[in-house]
Amino acid sequence: VLENRDLQDSIKPQKVEFRSLNFNSTLHWQPGRAGEARDTVYFVQYKVYGQSTWQNKDDCWGIQTHVCDLTNEVSEIQEPYYGRVKAASAGVYSDWSLSCRFTPWRETLIGPPTVTVVHSNKSIVLKLQAPRSPYKRKRGSKIPMTNYYDLLYQVFIINNLVDEQHRVLVYEGKNKIIKIEDLRPGVSYCVVAKTYVPMLDRSSAYSSRQCFVL
């Protein structure tokens, strides 16, 4: 019995946590302290905080990976959820390892907007598109993150002659089409953008650089 208990403890999954970007939410964990035997498999359950019964996640029942997609299971974005994982190896099952409480609306990271540089003379026009969630409207299109948050766009310009790392904020607001004027012809510029959520005081990463010469 003791040996079994030791094995149970040594295969118990560690560091169970939710990670989420634009409401694409996955549960992650690490193998137990014994490392991982070849035959180790994992079982995932989830529930809303306050509920007594756990739900099995069928796609993540007896899997060998360390990640489970729970995007559809945590779609009530204001609700707090828990996930938990147990391991089995050599016919022995570990206890459950519990995640911290996870509230998608509060904790998902929001991605940067997509930036399109339209045209240029002495100015350029940028088109910004908010990131999209995995959740769909009745017609099938994915719902943009602006439906869930009051988002602001921040646009920065980089003058490659001056300094690669020096980003100047040239716009902050909700407009999706932005004109940047008074640029010097023949100079190489790059633009990057972020989304910013004032209510949570949280910014996205930078979008990928769009570079151009007027």
UniProtKB/TrEMBL annotation:
* UniProt xrefs under InterPro entries: FN3_dom, FN3_sf, Ig-like_fold, Interferon/interleukin_rcp_dom, Type-II_Cytokine-TF_Rcpt
Q: Which organism is it from?
A: Bucorvus abyssinicus (Northern ground-hornbill)
An example Pfam family from this entry, by short name, is Tissue_fac
Q: Which residues form the Fibronectin type-III domain?
A: 12-107
Q: Does the keyword Magnesium apply?
A: no
Which molecular-function annotation in GO is an example for this chain?
Answer: cytokine receptor activity
What biological function has been recorded for the protein in this entry? Receptor for IL22. Binds to IL22, prevents interaction with the functional IL-22R complex and blocks the activity of IL22 (in vitro). May play an important role as an IL22 antagonist in the regulation of inflammatory responses.
| Keywords for this protein | Disulfide bond, Receptor, Repeat, Secreted, Signal
Family the entry assigns? Belongs to the type II cytokine receptor family.
Tell me the domain of life. Eukaryota
The residues that cross the membrane are none
Q: Does the keyword Nucleotidyltransferase apply?
A: no
- Name by which UniProt lists this protein: Interleukin-22 receptor subunit alpha-2
Signal peptide span: none
Quote the subcellular location field of this record. Answer: Secreted
Recorded GO cellular component terms are: extracellular region; plasma membrane
Q: What is its main location?
A: secreted
